[in-house]
């Protein structure tokens, strides 16, 4: 993984961990994912792996899938609104765009109480 993409993944993970109830979850090799109440809301690569991101996008998923390096997430998750991003290093979206997708996914997976807690922060 390039140092730029690795830095982006680390910044994204660190920001995701600030969301109410968020924690790390690593159910598979090569993953260091984010979850809330043990429900994954972002599949992220482990350190040293190529940039990738899978998130649940119930509102912006269709638009996101128009990107050339986006596709429905495998294992049937795409049918539930999950989108996987595997851009080349020079096309990784901005941190703000990645955070927006991460937050949308968090809101789709988190209990309503924690979503309200997040809204109170904003």
Give the overall shape: globular
**Average of pLDDT:** 93
Secondary structure category: alpha+beta
Residue share in helices? 25-40%
Task: Explain what the structure shows.
The protein has four helices and six strands; from the N terminus they run αββββαββαα. The protein has 122 residues and is an alpha+beta fold. A six-stranded antiparallel beta sheet has the order 1-2-3-4-6-5.
How are the secondary structure elements laid out?
Blueprint: H1 3-16, E1 22-25, E2 33-36, E3 39-43, E4 53-56, H2 61-64, E5 70-72, E6 82-85, H3 95-109, H4 112-121
Helix pairs in contact: 1-3
List keywords for this structure.
globular; 4 helices; alpha+beta; 35% helix; six-stranded antiparallel sheet; 122 residues; 20% strand; single chain
What's the short version?
The chain is an alpha+beta fold and 122 residues long. It is built from 4 helices and 6 strands, in the order H-E-E-E-E-H-E-E-H-H.
